[in-house]
Design brief:
Number of strands: 11
Number of helices: 0
Structural class: mainly beta
Order of helices and strands: EEEEEEEEEEE
Distance between the termini: 40 Å
Helix content: under 10%
Strand content: over 45%
Length: 112
């Protein structure tokens, strides 16, 4: 059974930082692209950042230069470092493996 468990979300002030983690079990991420999507209230789930099995990254324009996605194949884990957070970054962040398997999501709220 494939499981993805996100952690690290929370409430942060604008300009602050958060680090999201995703622990994956039941599938080896080394052969898959992995990454993060987010869903803001009333909106669709959109790509935030993904990283291929070869380490190539792709970011939404809105987060370029602020967010960094990384993978640890040995630990079977994915992280998202988020800096200079803005209120528009608020949403539920979902970890994914190959866009086939998804976590339950972790809430990120950026507000003063």
């Amino acid at each position: 059974q494939v499981q993805l468990v996100e952690s690290g979300g929370g409430l942060v002030q604008p300009g602050g930082s958060l680090r999201l983690s995703c622990a994956v079990s039941g599938i080896m991420i080394r052969f898959n692209g992995v990454g993060w999507y987010r869903q803001a209230p009333g909106k669709e789930r959109d790509l935030v950042a993904v990283i291929s099995s070869g380490g190539i990254t792709n970011y939404a324009d809105s987060v370029k230069g602020r967010f960094t996605v990384s993978r640890d194949n040995a630990k079977n884990a994915v992280t998202l470092q988020m800096n200079s957070l803005k209120p528009e970054d608020t949403g539920v962040y979902f970890c994914t493996v190959g866009s086939r398997f998804w976590g339950q999501g972790t809430q990120v709220t950026v507000s003063s």
